[in-house]
Amino acid sequence: MFPRLAFALAATLAAPAVAQDFSWGQRNTTLAPALDNQFRAELVTSDLTLERETVAEGLDHPWGIEILPDGGFLVTERSGQLRRIAADGTVSDPIAGVPEVLSMRQGGLLDVALAPDFDSSRIVYLTYSKPFDDGTTATAAARGTLSDDFTELTNVEDIFVQDPPVPSPLHFGSRIAFDGDGHLYITTGEHSFPQFAVYAQDLLKSFGKVMRLNLDGTVPTDNPFTGNYDALGGIWSYGHRNIQGAYFWEGQLWTIEHGPKGGDELNTPLPGLNYGWPVVSYGENYNGSPVGDGVASADGLEEPVYFWDPVIAPAGMHPYEGEMFPEWQGDLLISSLKPGGVVRLQIEDGKVMAEERLLHGFARVRDIEIDGDGAILIITDEDNGRLIRLTRS
Asked: What's the confidence (pLDDT) of residue 7?
């Protein structure tokens, strides 16, 4: 349990766990789910009140958060800054040594993650939109060594660069997850535009993929396409649109990705499998036209565990493991950009049994973490972005 010395000065608001006027909203398509428990699970409401405590504010569209061993935090700002927020809420100057980013639209400095052996190695991983001289950009992942005083990254090197770079400032994906067995997973987007979205099906391009790498960026020998000259060896799964949430949980990778109008997906990507985009989707294109042939299922393409229509615009995700909310133990918490807030899913045997909307419409919540005492940490994607601690009233 870590102290929060500044909370006496922080804004504290009590709020019901769920907006009482929530309704599913109107669907964009009439495509029927293919599986049980795949869509609009039972809606539930927790009998509790959440306290919202602002730990820090004044952040420039924060994107990723990681808890430090000393009780502080590392937070990325999309405009290109990595900052340390101390346990008392003090926000540092930008940490030196961060790679140059293309800060445009959805691009910038994105996820941050501590190496599994951070206590001894001080290695930090970052994902970002890497700029090129011809005006193109690509999702990239780098790692560097964080100084003991939290002021500088040194020995910074790219361990992954999406290929090919393209002139699109959209859909970078960009979440990092570790499996605890010497591998990391990097999620990529397909950069949105139709001429690039088709690359999600191209095994020689790292668009719309989950990439599985060794911690130094080399390709594991047991990846599904290692040694296949018709595919990139780093690919774990493909046919994704824009994965912004990923977590390795109970021996399985879980991801969550943005759909178009409707069709946000929760998946458990398995090695070598195709998750369908842009061939099939439970949503439709933004102009109202169908995705592909207008169907949600096809032979050889994997079904999502769960999908939403209308969307929740999912960003970060984290299973709840803590003492503060014992009734939520083992549930999956997902940050929502639209309509905003946190979505809680009750998971049993790999299926979604119930759904709850927490802080419905409160703010664009970009990432989510669980603090040492079981409090829920969220960051808000705003000009005046905040790190907020959710506790039990």
From this structure: 36
